[in-house]
Specification:
By secondary structure, the protein is α+β, with helices and mostly antiparallel strands. 23% of the residues lie in helices and 29% in strands.
């Protein structure tokens, strides 16, 4: 089955990237913006694999097709890499093909943070030099990630049961959406 489109331009053409990354430097911090052609979840897991952990997850629901509260859902307990991997692979298609959310994965040892956003990009914070080496070895090249100003997010009914399943997966700590929840 062909993957569903998470985001498209105003003409309905899928927005995708060709395995590129760019380092974004701001006055007091830097990050890497990653545009994976496909399969962002395995990429994040590969980057987390060598971290000590434990990890936490912040699920940011920005749009609900089911009437669930749009909010931040923070994992109430720290989780091991194995449990992180199980969670992300359980909902991989939903996370990669539906635009109603962002997922933040953080190492509690301060080793890194990754945001899989609803624009089909991944933001990496932490040891950027090490992340760049990993990206290069995975076939990613340096490039500019550009998102058209005019674009559409897609919220597929096929994933409605996944929205409920994510919200029932952990004992989440719920809080209001914040301006910084959109990493763009």
């Amino acid at each position: 089955m062909k993957p569903l489109s998470k985001i498209s331009d105003q003409n309905g053409t899928d927005i995708s990237y060709q395995n590129i990354w760019e380092r974004q430097v701001f006055p007091s911090w830097s990050r890497i913006n990653i545009g994976a052609k496909e399969r962002g979840i395995p990429l994040v897991l590969d980057l987390c694999r060598t971290m000590k952990g434990p990890f936490s997850i912040l699920y940011v629901l920005t749009v609900s097709r089911l009437g669930n509260e749009t909010a931040r859902y923070q994992s109430s307990e720290l989780i091991s890499y194995d449990n992180l991997e199980l969670f992300l692979y359980t909902f991989q298609e939903f996370f990669e093909q539906d635009g109603r959310h962002h997922i933040w994965v953080s190492s509690q040892a301060g080793e890194g943070q990754f945001i899989i956003d609803n624009h089909n990009t991944i933001y990496a914070y932490g040891d950027l030099d090490s992340f760049e080496v990993s990206l290069r070895s995975s076939g990613f090249t340096k490039g500019k990630i550009e998102l058209p100003d005019s674009h559409m997010h897609h919220y597929h009914p096929e994933f409605d049961s996944s929205e409920d399943a994510v919200l029932n997966y952990w004992g989440w700590i719920k809080s209001s959406l914040q301006p910084e929840d959109d990493p763009r």
